[in-house]
Each structure stands twice: as C-alpha cells, then as structure tokens.
Design brief:
The complex is a heterodimer.
Chain A lengths: L5 E7 L6 H4 L2 H4 L5 H5 L10 H4 L5 E4 L11 H8 L4 E4 L4 H10 L3 E3 L11 E5 L4 E4 L4 E4 L5 H8 L3 H8 L5
Parallel strand pairs in A: 1-2, 2-3, 3-4
Antiparallel strand pairs in A: 1-5, 5-6, 6-7
Chain B lengths: L4 H10 L8 E5 L2 E5 L3 H10 L11 E4 L9 H17 L2 E3 L6 H8 L7 E4 L13 E4 L2 H10 L1 E5 L3 E7 L8 H12 L8 E5 L1 H5 L2 H9 L8 E3 L4 H9 L18 E6 L6 E3 L7 E3 H4 L6 E4 L1 H4 L2 H11 L9 E4 L4 H9 L2 H8 L2 E2 L20 E4 L15 E4 L2 H10 L6 H5 L1
Parallel strand pairs in B: 2-3, 2-5, 3-4, 5-6, 8-9, 8-11, 9-10, 14-15, 14-17, 15-16, 17-18
Antiparallel strand pairs in B: 1-7, 12-13
Helix pairs in contact in B: 2-5, 6-8, 12-14, 12-15
Classes of the chains: A alpha/beta, B alpha/beta.
Chain lengths: ~170, ~425
C-alpha cells in the first residue's frame, strides 16, 4: 500500500462509534469466518453497509471511534471490506493499537467535522495531511509515530515479523 | 520529580526512569486471552512462527465468553485453545471456571506492582490490587506470548478522591456510574484513573474491583488503587505473597485532580445507549423491564450476590420478568451455595447460570428481543450489545437490579427499606 496517497469516498459517522456498532458481540461470538462476519459490519448504523461499501472507501468519524471492547475483529472487518483508512477526531486506545497492528491506517484529524458523507479525500500519511478533493480543502493530521508507521507499512505486526524476522521491540 | 503509581510500575517494568508521555518497552508479569480473543492470538502466534511461550506459568487462557459453547464454531475455538494450552504449557481455565478477570484475581497472577495485559478491555479491573493492568488486542498479545514484552505509552493520571459515607443501598457501582457520568465516555482516554480517598479505603476488595472494572468506560487505559492492608490481607487469603505496594508521590504530576463527596449520592443508572448517559434511578423509576441480569466482571462477586439475595429473600420476582444470576467464578458460586444465596435466588424465581460472561456480551444465556428492556449490573449498554439493536439496556447496581426484578419496573432500592 502507498501511504502517501490513499484516495477514497467518505462514509461519515458521528461520535462514540463503539465496537458493538462496528461488529456486534452476537456475531463475533458465533461466527469465526471473516467473510461471513464482515457482512454484519456497521449494520446497526447503516443496514447492508457491507454490500454498499466499495473497496478503497474511507470511514470518517468524530470523537472516540472504536470505544468499548478490545475485539480486533472490529478493525479486521473494516479492513476486510476494503476500507482504505479510518479517520477520526480521536480514537479509543485499543482500537487504535489494533488497527495499526493489523495494517489498517487509523488517522487522527481534528477537522473531521468539515468532511461530509460522499466527499472524496486524499490521505497522505507520509507528509501528514488530508486533501478534501470535493471541497478543495486541506486538513492537518496528527503524525503516526515512525515505529508504528513501519508496522503499518509492512501490513501489520504479523507481516512485519515475516518481513524482518523479529518483533519491532 | 515525583511519580504516580502508574509511572512507578512502568519504571519498574521497563528498567528505566519513565514519566507520562514516554513510549517504552516493558516486561509484563502476566498475560491473558479468552475465547473471544484467543483464536486470533493463536493464529497470529503461529503465523509469526511462535515456538514457545516466554513464560508458560504466566499465561492464562480462559473459556468464559461462550461457556459452555453455544455453537459449533465456538466449540472449535475452545478445542484450539485447549490444544494450544496443552502444547505450550499455559494454564487453561475451562468452561465453568469463571470470568477471566475474576480468575486472574483469584489465580495469584495479579499482585501489587505487577504489569498485566489481557486481550480484553476490562483487564483494567486488576488495578484494584495495586497492579497496572490494561487491555490489548489479539495480535499484539501473540507478540507478548512470544516475548513477554510490549510497547506502552506511559499514561498521565487523573486522580479521583472520593469522600463521604455511602447511604444504605448505595453501592460502589453507583459511585463509578456517577464518576463516568461526570467524566464522559472519552474523558480519560489514554489516561490512568487513580481512585483514592476515605470512601475507597473503606470499600471491600469486591467494591474496589467494581470501580476499576469500569475505568475503560471513560476511555481509561487502567483504573488503579493504592494497595493497602486490605489488599495484602485479601491476597494472603489467596496464598499470594508477591508484590510491591506503590503510592503516588506528593509531588507527582496529575493531569487533573477531582474530588467527589458521595454522602448524598442516590442510586445511579446508566440509560441507553451510552454508558455516560447517567441519571439517578429516581428519574427513570417505573420504566417496565423484561429481563434483569446480575453478574459479569463488574458485579458478580459475593458482595453483589449477598446484597441482591438480602433484597430477594422470601420474595418473588415479578411474573413476566426473568432474572438471570451468574456468579463470577466457581469459588464464588460455591461460597454463595454455602451461604444459602443460591437457594434464595432459585426460590425467588431466578435463573442461576454457570460462572461465565453470560448475556453481557450478547453470546447466549439471555439474548434480548426487539423492544425488550434489560436492567443489567454489567458495564456496557451499547445498542445491540445483548441482542437486538431495538432492545434497551440500563446499567445499575445489584441492589437496584434485585429491587427492580421484584417490582417488574426500574425501582430505587431504598424504597424497599421503607416498606
């Protein structure tokens, strides 16, 4: 993946999008197949989200995205559906760690309130900005620490270990 | 420069002098994964070429989320866990043993000054023993299994001092709900929350575990309480002699200090669909309910069962309402049997389930239908968490739960005292 240019169409969500809204416990605790599990992603907020979303689309949200459970299935189903990045005003800490560890870009941006559903964004993680191509605006993002960016660029922790033959620490 | 408890424990675990904001690599003292998270951990462990555990005696695998299994897919998950534990020598707590967080506390793997990670967000519970404990993801847990190490950002600490005597029928759960309502669902993100003050000192270990359990509902990395004589006594009762008791220095830097007087506190309730949507029970009294759940890693301990049984003794729950009671561990279940609590629940018309997570995570043993209302002593009321997205979940104390089950509607437990 090229982290200097992730371009996609926006699905906009609000504050406190918790892990049960991303993927409910009743599915996580009965379905272990990722294809099947992903069909239920975000369904409490947008019915049939999994069918509507296109590969490369972006999720943009307000504060505290991914709060609640430590379930790694939450970022996994989003990645599996092809979400290119999750951009939020702030993240719950375990979701943030999990996203990086499985290779899903999680980007902190204080200006997500300026983004609308359906906008097209260009995300540049290397230089640290987001361009709103629909509104012709530029937003700054909180840089991802270099060590984490390396894990992300490898495609997550497992792929990092496969690539370098050791853990990052 | 003075340090907080969190800074002291993370300094010890990293072998460096560290302060809030530092990013460190630290050695963990214990690690845990359960059947909701262990499969991904085991898969990542295998994919990364894991050949052994850094210290098998410090690794626990717990079957508690769907225990015993309700589906064939989870029966397979359980089998993978049993085989992994056997192959690498980890301790396996099989179905029926109890909830991971209660078992970790009872197992002796958690002690003051320890750094503990769990693949579950409510790992923060163990801070009640003066440990630094936090939830992590499945993949990084695989890395911990292999190396015994993980990176951490040393958190800032919010210190919450609690003063005042709690009224009768007002419990530690009411205190933590009040605090979450004040701080908000993300008010403590990436921070440690240290609970202190005479009210906390006066609480039993059961009550302190309830406080720390819900720290993550404010976004906190962990809840923490300075270990004291009560902690040491509790642990020696479990045969645990290890541990270093830390306290925050006078000149430690806190991100904020909050003081709260709970002497006039009323029973609290968290209303749908966010945990920080907290009101007094009195404000929502009369709301009809379909199900009551007494249990979970928040409120399934002896003190919780005792107060509920005291209210239910000689009474029946309202016709048309079901009440599910789930002791948090086998040892708690056995003690409740000895004390006659289980008989009180059964005579009152409750369903007493085996120790485990039960309906809290929406797996089984009490899934909600559309339009149903549940009053639960657990820790999350997210839309769809316990079943239908069109169900409502209210969170309250064991006393409020028992009183409401008798009346068939949300009820302030102090009302029963006056009768």
């Amino acid at each position: 993946m090229h982290y200097d240019r992730i371009v996609g169409r926006v699905w906009k969500f609000g504050d406190d999008i918790n892990t049960d809204l991303i993927i409910a416990g009743k599915y996580k605790l009965s379905i272990t197949n990722l294809d099947e599990l992903s069909r239920h992603a975000m369904e409490a907020l947008i019915p049939n989200f999994a069918e509507k979303v296109k590969r490369g689309d972006l999720i943009v949200a307000g504060r505290n995205f991914g709060c609640g459970s430590s379930r790694e299935q939450a970022p996994l189903v989003l990645k599996h559906l092809g979400i290119g990045a999750v951009i939020a005003e702030s993240f719950a800490r375990i979701f943030y760690r999990n996203a990086i560890n499985i290779g899903l870009p999680a980007v902190e941006c204080k200006e997500t309130n300026r983004v609308s559903n359906g906008d097209t964004l260009e995300v540049n993680l290397v230089d640290g900005y987001i361009k709103n191509l629909t509104k012709n605006e530029v937003y700054s993002v909180k840089p991802i620490p270099p060590a984490l960016l390396e894990v992300l660029a490898s495609g997550g922790l497992v792929n990092y270990v496969k690539k370098y033959g050791r853990l990052p620490w | 420069m003075g340090k907080t408890i969190a800074e002291k424990i993370l300094s010890l675990a990293s072998g460096k002098d560290v302060y809030a904001g530092d990013i460190i690599v630290a050695s963990v003292d214990a690690a845990m994964a359960h059947d909701g998270t262990a499969l991904l951990t085991i898969e990542a462990f295998n994919e990364m070429g894991g050949r052994g555990l850094w210290n098998p005696s410090r690794v626990a695998l717990v079957i508690d989320h769907v225990a015993p299994s309700a589906t064939e897919s989870f029966s397979r998950v359980h089998r993978v866990m049993r085989e992994f534990a056997r192959k690498y020598g980890a301790t396996l707590y099989d179905a029926g043993s109890g909830i991971c967080h209660q078992l970790m506390v009872e197992s002796g793997l958690v002690y003051p000054g320890a750094l503990v990670v769990g693949a579950d967000s409510h790992t923060c519970t163990y801070g009640a023993l003066g440990a630094f404990a936090t939830g992590i993801g499945s993949t990084e847990m695989a890395a911990v299994f292999m190396s015994g190490k993980l990176w951490f950002k040393v958190p800032e600490t919010i210190r919450i001092e609690v003063n005042g005597f709690l009224q009768s029928m007002v419990l530690p759960k009411d205190v933590i709900l009040k605090i979450i309502g004040m701080i908000g669902a993300d008010g403590a993100t990436y921070k440690a929350v240290e609970f202190c003050g005479p009210t906390v000192k006066a609480m039993s270990m059961d009550g302190r575990l309830t406080l720390c359990n819900m720290a993550v509902e404010m976004g906190a990395k962990t809840g923490i309480i300075e270990a004291d004589g009560k902690t040491i006594e509790y642990l020696s009762g479990l045969g645990v002699k290890e541990g270093l008791s830390f306290r925050s220095d006078e000149d430690a830097v806190f991100s904020s200090k909050i003081s709260l007087d709970v002497s006039g506190l009323e029973p609290q309730i968290s209303c749908p669909h966010k945990v920080d949507n907290v009101r007094s029970v009195r404000e929502v009294e009369g709301k009809e309910i379909d199900q009551v759940f007494l249990g979970s890693c928040t409120n399934g301990r002896l003190e919780d069962l005792r107060i509920a049984a005291e209210i239910l003794r000689g009474k029946s729950i309202k016709k048309g309402v079901r009440m599910i009671v789930t002791p948090s561990s086998r040892s708690i279940y056995l003690q409740a049997l000895k004390e006659g609590l289980i008989e009180i629940f059964m005579r009152a018309g409750c369903i007493v389930c085996n120790p485990g997570c039960g309906p809290c995570a929406g797996a089984h043993q009490g899934i909600l239908a559309p339009g149903e209302v549940c009053l639960s002593t657990s820790n999350r009321n997210f839309k769809g968490r316990m079943g239908s997205v069109d169900a409502e979940i209210y969170l309250a104390s064991p006393a409020t739960a028992a009183a409401s089950a008798i009346e068939g509607k949300i009820t302030d437990p102090r009302r029963l005292l006056r009768k």
